[in-house]
UniProtKB/TrEMBL annotation, chain A:
This is Unannotated protein. GO terms for cellular component: plasma membrane. InterPro entries: Ammonium/urea_transptr, Ammonium_transpt, Ammonium_transpt_CS, NH4_transpt_AmtB-like_dom. The chain crosses the membrane at residues 12-32, 44-64, 99-121, 133-154, 178-200, 212-232, 238-265, 272-290, 296-318, 330-353, 373-395. Residues 12-422 form the Ammonium transporter AmtB-like domain. Keywords: Ammonia transport, Cell membrane, Membrane, Transmembrane, Transmembrane helix, Transport. Gene3D superfamilies: Ammonium transporter AmtB like domains. NCBIfam families: amt. Pfam families: Ammonium_transp. It comes from freshwater metagenome.
From TrEMBL, chain B:
This is Unannotated protein. The keyword Translocase does not apply. GO terms for cellular component: cytosol. GO terms for molecular function: ATP binding; enzyme regulator activity. InterPro entries: N-reg_PII (IPR002187), N-reg_PII-like_a/b (IPR011322), N-reg_PII/ATP_PRibTrfase_C (IPR015867), N-reg_PII_urydylation_site (IPR002332).
Length: 434, 112
């Protein structure tokens, strides 16, 4: 076997990508925080921040081993053990082949995905979740849902010679998901739908105004997400190479297409192109191109993004018809965008741009690839939705998941965190003493 | 003495302020207000969800004047604030029993 030696360029790109992906979660906190009312912006942002804390700790203790370990040789999970990651400092990454980057860099990169996925769910239950219950949920959900699902999708196995062991179930089936359309976005979207059902509607939903309190914060969040997403998608190449360049370009143009698609629908339907629409279009496009970014040509990325903008802008209204309060549209954007992007590979995928890619319907590959993609979408959706319903109801029945009516009306920031986001007039607060 | 209260379109404030100063009235209190009259509210759209917002932003301007200046001050405000379109606001006067200047203790018209 050829000896693979550490590559400085690849490692440098992966370190930078890892930091970029981390930035997405605070970006998400701004994106979500701006969309809620002044009385719950801090709680909204704190749900993301505490997720960074919890998942990072779990990842070092057992999360990375559960998702990417090789000890169990199972398609369902990596291995069970308290890794601590100390013994792997000198090892290179082996994920279906040896990559010339340290395994700890790979572990840190994958950690950022494990962080943002549960953070995405928080948008479905804005204004009304007990903070400690959310923290407990994040710990359980990461362990039972994200870590195993990451193994199914992202673990390409431990390759020694020609023998590959411990390949994840969906990866082994040939499901194509470059950066997490299924493992991240469908996973979070299905979980968001389940939690919105478990927690129920906010008091006053559809009766009183729940306008976003700060659209500039939403725009800032969308900008940070867009910037960080280059690490998410182009970093998933695990190398500074042509595939990273393809993923980078596709990420840019799909997102641009989605902004235009979303604004076009708004202009036709409501007569106004809105800033919230533009910011939402950004995220819809980023979500949709995530699974496909290394398997399609840039022209196809524009089409995928444009259609994602149209689809998601229509999908966010479904909750009003079906009557579930997915407060910040985790379902309409992440679930719908994730499904569309994953299935789009079945149409637009081509081996011309990626030697390990497969041809979709438009490239004469028939429906075989689309069927694989449907399998990936269906398995992840079903598992995440059902497991999240069970976890959610278990928390609701034991420690309670939803705040009291009083807390919800007076404001979750003040009651759960003893803080308020804004002091708009000094006279409105009276005196304060330490 | 009279208290004139005027509800105005926010963009008209500067013009009204200057017109009142030109008419010899020095001193006023301005606050941001919201409300509706015949104009009713407006519609805002967030991710396709239309919200009818009842309350429209307005400026509340309050001026204390001597009885003899009241009618002309009201005229100045009405003339300056009018755009002819719905939502221009209202002006009303109320009698004032007593006015005291805090610094000097002057009372009545001298305090205005």
């Amino acid at each position: 076997m050829d000896q693979v030696v550490l590559n400085g360029g690849d490692t440098a790109w992966m370190l930078a990508s890892t930091a970029l992906v981390l930035l997405m979660t605070p970006g998400l906190a701004f994106f979500y925080g701006g969309m809620v009312r002044t009385k719950s912006v801090l709680n909204m942002m704190m749900m993301s921040m505490v997720t960074i804390g919890i998942v990072s700790v779990l990842w070092v203790i057992y999360g990375f081993e559960l998702a990417f370990g090789h000890s169990a040789d199972s398609p369902w999970y990596g291995g069970i053990g308290l890794s601590g990651l100390g013994s792997q400092v000198d090892e290179l990454t082996n994920n279906g082949g040896v990559y010339p980057i340290p395994v700890l860099v790979f572990a840190a990169f994958q950690l950022m995905f494990a962080i943002i996925t549960p953070a995405l769910i928080s948008g479905a239950i804005a204004d009304r979740a007990k903070f400690t219950s959310w923290a407990v949920f994040v710990a359980i959900w990461s362990t039972v849902v994200y870590f195993p699902v990451a193994h199914w999708v992202f673990a390409f196995g431990n390759k020694v010679g020609d023998v590959v062991t411990s390949t994840g179930y969906l990866a082994g089936k040939g499901v194509q998901d470059f950066a997490g359309g299924t493992a991240v976005h469908i996973n979070a979207g299905a979980a968001g739908l389940a939690l919105a059902i478990v927690l129920g509607k906010r008091i006053g939903w559809r009766k009183e105004s729940m306008r976003p309190h700060s659209l500039p914060l939403v725009m800032l969040g969308a900008a940070l997400l867009w910037f960080g997403w280059f690490g998410f998608n182009a970093g998933s190449s695990l190398a500074a190479n042509g595939i990273a360049g393809l993923a980078f370009m596709n990420t840019q143009v799909a997102t641009a297409g989605a902004v235009l698609g979303w604004l076009l629908v708004e202009k036709i339907r409501n007569g106004h192109a809105t800033s919230l629409g533009a910011a939402s279009g950004v995220v819809a496009g980023l979500v949709a191109i995530t699974p496909a970014c290394a398997f399609v040509a840039p022209w196809a990325a524009v089409v995928i993004g444009f259609i994602a903008g149209i689809l998601c802008s229509l999908a966010v209204s479904i909750k009003y018809k079906l009557g579930f309060d997915d407060s910040l549209d985790v379902v309409g954007v992440h679930l719908v965008g994730g499904i569309w992007g994953s299935l789009a590979i079945g149409f637009f995928g081509t081996s011309v741009v990626n030697s390990v890619g497969l041809d979709g319907i438009l490239y004469g590959g028939g429906t075989a690839l689309l069927m694989k993609q449907l399998l990936g979408v269906g398995v992840v959706f079903a598992y995440s939705f059902i497991a999240t319903l069970i976890i959610g109801y278990a928390i609701e029945k034991t420690i309670g998941f939803r705040v009291t009516r009083e807390v919800e009306i007076e404001g979750i920031d003040l009651k759960e965190h003893a803080e308020s986001a804004y002091e708009l007039a000094s006279s409105s607060r009276g005196g304060a003493s330490l | 003495m009279k208290l004139i209260t005027a509800i105005l379109k926010p963009f008209k404030l500067d013009e009204v302020k200057e017109a009142l100063q030109a008419a010899g009235i020095n001193g006023m209190t301005v606050s941001e207000a919201s409300g509706f009259g015949r104009q009713r509210g407006h519609t805002e759209v967030y991710r396709g969800a239309e919200y009818t917002v009842d309350l429209v932003p307005k400026i509340r301007l309050e001026v204390l004047v001597d009885d003899k200046d009241a009618a002309s001050a009201v005229d100045v405000i009405v003339k300056t604030a009018s755009t002819g379109s719905i939502g221009d606001g209202k002006v009303w006067t109320t009698p004032v029993e007593q006015v005291v200047r805090v610094r000097t203790g002057e009372r009545g018209p001298d305090a205005i």
